[in-house]
Amino acid sequence: MKSDEWYDRFLETLLKVYPKKAQLIEKLIELLSIERGAVYRRLRKEIPFSFYEIVKIASEWDISLDNISGIHSGKITFFMQPVNYVDPSKQDLSFLKYVIQSINLLKDFPDAEFMDICNKLPRQLYAGFKHLYQFYLFKWKYEYTIDKKVIPFSKFMISKEKSLLITDYYRAIKNVPQTNFIFDRLLFDNLLSEVLYFYSIRMITCQEKELIKTDLYALLDYLWEVATNGYYPETKNKVNLYISNLNVNTNYSYTYTNQANICFVHVFDKYEIYTYHPEMVLNFKSWMQLKKRASYQISEVDEKSKIEYFSKQRKLVDTLL
Fold it and tell me: Mean of the pLDDT values across residues 292-309?
């Protein structure tokens, strides 16, 4: 491949990451700490990005230089992004802001689709419920931090900056034109068992358990509205809810448009393993769509199944005494 062809692919990829040129320019100024004129000259190919600049951009924006160069080893590269959701570093916060910005861009793509198959409540849903979100972060800290000092739920605090990011994320995800969720049939059973475990070891008080219980009722009310109407009430964007008849092993998802795609495997509630590889994203999309065969839809189409499902989940929450 000629060097100018490689460079053209690199520039095209930058515009896929930030389709609006004005935003791309601002992000490059911020990332590379260079003047606006210098960015313009690079994008016009008057002078090339340096090797250091290309590597820094590719690293920060998760761009595969192998794909751009056209050199394919036959292997599919997955990336892992560790994020400390409890005490995020500046890099963690920067990554989370980038994720929110990327999600917000999806509203400009009418064909954009998000799908999540999950055995635990996805962050896209519980992020809107204060005590439920606090419980998930509390559980995450309990399970995955090496600090031997155990912090009870009552002393677990979320910073103001992190709270604002949570709110921004919860709003942004509603901008995706179409969303599909497939829940493990025991999703709420497992969540309630975890709450009761922490209550049994006195990490959660009776009053705190009631706050989580109230959030669970509110979440079920919200999901009932989504299932009844078939869309997010805030944006009217399409949502399909399914319940899997087979066990779901972990949470995995994809975001798909005609221009930019990505698939994720969510592990340990801590890491995101993901790839932009077009063949793998298409495989993920096909595999995940096939999960509908062993699932039943509770949004819009089947009133009986919807009523039975939500009645069962409410009875489960009732048992959180």
Answer: 93
CA quadruple 155, 161, 162, 166: dihedral sign: positive
How far apart, in whole angstroms, are the C-alpha atoms of residue 128 and residue 168?
Answer: 10
Q: Is residue 286 part of a domain?
A: yes
Q: Is 268 helix (H, G, I), strand (E, B) or coil?
A: coil
Whole-angstrom Cα distance, residue 221 to residue 188? 14
Number of domains the chain is built from = 2
74 in any annotated domain: no
- Name which residue leads in pLDDT, 113 or 64: 113
Please enumerate in sequence order all residues whose Cβ is within 8 A of that of 44, keeping only pairs 6 or more positions apart, or say none.
Answer: none
What is the enclosing helix (H) or strand (E) of 113? strand 113-118
Beta strands in 147-237 (DSSP E): 178-184
Rounded (to 5) percent helix, strand, coil in the chain? 55, 15, 30
**Closest Cα partner for 160 from 88, 91, 95?**
88
The domain of 262 spans 79-318
Both 58 and 196 in one domain: the answer is: no
- Residues 226, 152 share a domain: yes
pTM: 0.76
